[in-house]
Amino acid sequence: MQAASSPSTVESGPGVLDAPEVPEAAFEVVDQVEDLLTGVGERAPERLIRPATEALTSGGKRLRPLLLILSARMGEPGEVDLLRASTAIEVLHTATLIHDDIVDRAETRRGAPTTVAKYGREIAVATGDYLFAETFTELAEIGDPRLVRAFSEASQGLAAGELEQYRASASGSSAADGTNVEAYLDHIRMKTAGLFKAACVAGSTLGGLSLRQIDALATYGQALGIAFQMSDDIMDIVGKPGLMGKGIGTDLVEGTVTLPIIFALREGEAGTIQRALAASDPSPDVLEAAIEAVLATDAVARTEAWARGEIEAAFEGLGLLPGGPEREVLEAVAAEVVGRSA
Questions:
Q1: pLDDT, tens digit, for every residue of 68-85?
Q2: CATH 1.10.600.10 residue spans of the chain
Q3: Which CATH superfamily is domain 21-171 in?
Q4: Cα distances (angstroms) measured from residue 247 to each of 13, 108, 183, 202
Q5: pLDDT tens column, 270-322
Q6: What is the pTM of this model?
Q7: Any bridge partners for residue 108, and if so which?
């Protein structure tokens, strides 16, 4: 069983927000969200208080709330609703992590035991369910059906993405099959990119932006999420700290076929890579050989180019948005995500 992937922090280290500085007002809202997350945990049913609070306060970049806040502050959001929505997006994200860890049988996340490893499957399932419910409790307080729709679409995508991953694994579909690139893209659109998009849509809706501007931010959020995942997939191969905190070769160990692996299977020593993917616990020698086989191809460069293409498309839409520090930070986030894969 493997350590779960986890995101890096925004606040410390060489993160995705190196420059320009995030507006102080946005970070003030993030700080308030931290307090509200603690409150969500503390009002859980008695047996779920500790696991819920630990999951909600275990760290992470808070990038999804920050995207929501930046999108909203391009307009004039109500502060109370902004806090509720920003809290809801992080609660939803945390719920999905708990359920992912249950399914993946992950033992650690962010260097600590996962909820399922520490408390068992029954408590972990109940904790994730509670957090899903709390997400929509927060949205009900806002009372805007557009936000409910954005969050529910993201939730449906997360579930569908996980199901498709299992179907592909169970069917033993060949990673050399040309359809796998589309399957990979569909998967990360539904899982990683879905919450990024929901955050941008919810924020811009609360800010009262025009439909064209909301659509532009939706495009930006989805493209950012896709590039974010691709960059992390590259880091998993090249041995740098991943955007999601994964160790080197985690995807190969877990049998996860990412875009660089798909490209390498087509171009390089497919048998060497497949041995690592097929093994339940590949030896260090098998894993090292598979990584070297990927690096011997153009797979990393091709994935970098694809990620940059996603970000370039997102930049076009940002031209419809009001100028100012919020837009500058959104541009910097995108540039930094693809820059880290270079």
A1: 999 999 999 999 999 999
A2: 21-171, 210-342
A3: Farnesyl Diphosphate Synthase (1.10.600.10)
A4: 17, 12, 24, 32
A5: 999 999 988 888 999 999 999 999 999 999 999 999 999 999 888 887 888 98
A6: 0.85
A7: 113
